[in-house]
Amino acid sequence: MWLAALRDVAIILLAIESLIIGILLALMLLQLRKLVVLLREEIAPLLDSANSTMHKVETTTHFVGDTVVNPLIELIGYTKGGVEAAKVLLRLRKRVRGIPKQDVPKASAQSTAADISTVAPSRRNDR
Question: How far apart are CA 91 and CA 99, in angstroms?
Answer without folding.
Answer: 10
